[in-house]
Amino acid sequence: MKFYYVYMLKCSDDSIYTGMTNSIDRRLEEHKLGLNIDCYTYRKRPLRLIYHQEFMQFDQAQFYEKKIKKWSRSKKLALANEDFELLKDLSICKNETNYKNFEK
Fold first, then answer.
1. Which pLDDT belongs to residue 31?
2. Which residues form the GIY-YIG domain (predicted)?
3. Is the CB of residue 20 less than 8 Å from the CB of residue 4?
4. CA separation (Å) from 102 to 6, 63, 92, 93, 98?
């Protein structure tokens, strides 16, 4: 059975890279060696794996990767640190137009 992985790397400039692969060991080695000069992580080595999640279906992994890529740095770090309470707090909409800000 083939598995897919969504992963996050912490880069040397403190940025976070999110990606997806079907071979996490191979992909991490590619990042580490800097095989692709056009890759975001090429000039941001060394890298450290801070999170990964395994999926059995490509569609699930792809959906999750796209979702996480839109998240703030704080939310990504909360997920990587397994701080689910903070992740929940960071997920609450704080816009003025949120329905919770209107009197009933």
1. 95
2. 2-78
3. yes
4. 38, 32, 15, 13, 8
